[in-house]
């Protein structure tokens, strides 16, 4: 029954109409008896809270775009010579950011599952305190932390590979950086539903050709990155090239490898 309900949400989003739909609809589609369903979920709210918890646990995991992460490492491997100069490394970083930001925005803007997750994160706070509400909030928190940890290791590795490091004031903690970059993409994803003509704007950066335009999300993403990172004076390009040539784990476990790589 939860699988059926989750698929409905994934296809059409979590809206008021779905929340008010009767448990009997799901029971009939699942072809289980009302007695069994009532024994598991005595009330409609009991089912809804379990559904919310399932959504909270699944959505962030499903939206961690592993294909994009792997493709990023493949892109770096095709630009090995550029790693040998500061100008080349900055060019790589900007190209990676531009592509990743635009792909992530498109994923957010077109995903009913993500819209449901974002809606749930806000609407759950309006519900009265209860064990069900607490369980959903805990699932949302755990899901968010898992996403942050995955992206923390990704960014830590990417930045070190292209010769960047966090600025001293962030004490080598990439978590605030991950939250800030995600907020840019997700915030613009929400804005795109009402002002797409602004969110989809493109601009030319000073010193670049007119054909090399930048999307709003890419510019905002770069702004966050430049606030957080700087060139690493101890960077060894040949070491990074050797690692890329030998293959790199995209999302290593923090417990196994807290320093990255």
Terminus-to-terminus distance: 42 Å
Count the helices. How many?
Answer: 13
Compute the CA-based radius of gyration.
22 Å
Count of separate structural domains: 1
What is the correct CATH architecture? Orthogonal Bundle
What is the string of SSEs from the N terminus onward? Answer: HHHHHHHHHEHHEEHEH
What is the CATH third-level topology name? Tetracycline Repressor, domain 2
Please give the CATH class. Answer: Mainly Alpha
Average residue-wise pLDDT: 84
Shape: elongated
Fraction of residues in β-strands: under 5%
- The helical percent reads 55-70%
Strand order in the sheet with the most strands: 1-4
Total strands: the figure is 4
The major beta sheet can be summarized as: 2 strands, antiparallel
Structural class: mainly alpha
Question: How would you portray this structure in words?
Answer:
This protein is mainly alpha-helical and 261 residues long. It has one domain (2-246): Tetracycline Repressor, domain 2. Helix content is 67%, strand content 5%. It is elongated and about 70 Å long. The chain has 13 helices and four strands. Residues 250-261 have low confidence and may be disordered. It has helices at residues 2-12, 16-20, 23-30, 34-40, 44-63, 66-77, 86-110, 112-123, 131-161, 175-191, 196-199, 216-228, 237-246; strands at residues 164-166, 202-204, 213-215, 229-231.
């Amino acid at each position: 029954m939860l699988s059926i309900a989750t698929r409905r949400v994934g296809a059409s989003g979590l809206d008021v109409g779905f929340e008010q739909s009767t448990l009997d609809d799901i029971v009939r589609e699942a072809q289980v008896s009302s007695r069994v369903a009532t024994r598991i979920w005595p009330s409609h709210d009991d089912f809804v809270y379990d559904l919310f918890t399932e959504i909270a646990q699944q959505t962030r995991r499903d939206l961690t775009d592993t294909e994009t992460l792997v493709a990023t490492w493949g892109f770096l491997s095709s630009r090995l010579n550029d790693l040998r100069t500061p100008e080349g490394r900055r060019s790589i970083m900007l190209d990676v950011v531009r592509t990743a930001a635009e792909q992530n925005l498109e994923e957010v803007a077109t995903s009913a599952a993500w819209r449901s997750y974002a809606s749930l994160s806000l609407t759950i706070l309006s519900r009265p305190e209860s064990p069900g509400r607490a369980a959903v909030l805990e699932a949302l928190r755990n899901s968010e932390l898992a996403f942050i940890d995955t992206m923390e290791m990704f960014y830590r590795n990417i930045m070190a590979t292209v010769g960047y490091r966090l600025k001293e004031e962030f004490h080598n903690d990439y978590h605030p950086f991950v939250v800030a970059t995600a907020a840019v993409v997700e915030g613009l994803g929400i804005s795109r539903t009402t002002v797409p003509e602004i969110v989809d704007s493109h601009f030319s950066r000073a010193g670049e050709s007119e054909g090399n335009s930048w999307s709003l999300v890419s510019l905002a993403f770069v702004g966050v990155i430049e606030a957080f990172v700087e060139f690493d004076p101890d960077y060894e390009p040949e070491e990074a090239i050797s690692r890329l040539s030998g293959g790199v784990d995209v999302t290593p476990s923090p417990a196994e490898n807290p320093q990255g790589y």
